[in-house]
Amino acid sequence: MGFFTVLEQRARAVDSLLCIGLDPHPADLEENTPQGILSFCRKMIAATADLAAAFKPNAAFFEAFGAPGWQVLAEVIASIPPGIPVILDAKRGDIASTAEAYAQAVFLTMKANAVTLSPYLGRDSLEPFLKDPARGVFMLCKTSNPGASDLQDLPLSGQALGHTLYEHVAALAQQWNQNDNLGLVVGATQVEALRRVRQLAPDLWILAPGVGAQGGDLEEALGAGLRADGLGLLVPVSRAISRAADPRQAALELRDAIRQAARVKTTSMSPSSPLDETQASRLRVAQGLLAAGCVKFGKFTLKSGLESPIYIDLRQLVSYPQLLQQVGEAYLPILNALEFSRLAGLPYAAIPIATAVSLLGGWPMLYPRKEVKTYGTKAEIEGLFNPGEQVVVIDDLATTGGSKFEAIEKLNAAGMQVKDVVVLIDRQSGAKEALALAGYQMHAVFTLTELLDLWEASHSVPAEQIEQARQFIACTPEYVHFSSAFRRNAPLV
Fold it and tell me: Is 349 in a helix, a strand, or coil?
């Protein structure tokens, strides 16, 4: 069973997202000795165990005492009741061989259930900690300290999975979470970063320190970082509890405040009636497109020269196999209602999508080349087919329909018949109308308007950006007219 499955079970069992931090600051101890640390931690555990989703001892305060401190740390972890996950806050990070030793120390010697790690050395430095699904990792992403921006906010370009270093880390974590045991550390003081990380990593658990002594706003942090199911965010608090006159009462009040804020968030995100599986899968795809950076909001110049408040690039899907599968599944209800023999994926973005659909539905696939080879067979169509077969065109986006017509002409010239075109997103810029004039029917998993509605309902995109995109859609008649005129004389099927 994966670590986060265990954590989720614990969180649901006690209806709590509170993580009790065990930070034995010397100033808080009756005596600054290993035994003083042990006494302090045991009192905290006894007072709060029934309220805790997890405990998080901070290794530094124990390590300061050397070997006796390590012995006390093991005793503290052993004192935590079974069934409550223990996250060792150690922030380790080293080359793979050294990481193996650190993993042994954390999991086998100390018997912690999870650990905080630095990702700076890359994936191989994490693998020794991730190989056992029962052991968890919280990877540093956007930390709560003032100097976090020195590195974590650095802008990236090229093949990065986000605009900044911390966004890249979040997107990588979503990919690397193969065993349901990788989460992220994002400070509760960084509300906008929490919101962005939740978009990039919609499934992952987030450890969000900074509430209490560091001044993080609990409601804002939960509003930005919770998943739609009301879970996925763990709030660690130490000093605000340990330094309270009544630590148990302080923990109880925090637990209840978290409960209330979480319920407000989930209520605002939930539709008036429960989602069926089809609706839920559509929402997952819509959220996944945002998280993967396939959809961006801002100011973008399109190929047409128009300035758009939204940009869609589905070529990013190849880096997100789980999302690619979900996208492929979203095509199936439409395709199952059509009659055809083969799929024709259009280069380039739609070829991975068509491949996923082919594997899921069992339909053979081909694709027309954009550039005909000048050597070998000089084939215009890659893949097997028989003249007279009916083919469904698979594409990622539909704007004016120009690329669809070019592909259909090649398929027709090879002797195949086309009646239907299926796309993931119809940008509502004239493609559907232009294709209809020529006798082809276009089907879309989503219109852009439908996606905007989903993002608005789930509070995934700021309202002003949603409105700007809607206004842009409403101002496309000239584009539609161009598209229609472009293919008005196209031969009918």
Answer: coil
